[in-house]
Amino acid sequence: MKYKVTNIDINSPREVMNLYSERLFGEKEWENLKTDELQGMFSNVLTDFYSDGLGIDVLSSIGSFIFDQLGEDRSSDFAGVVLAASELGYYIRNTGEKEESGKYLISILEKLKRYSEDNKLED
Question: How far apart are the C-alpha atoms of 22 and 60, rounded to whole Å?
Answer without folding.
Answer: 20
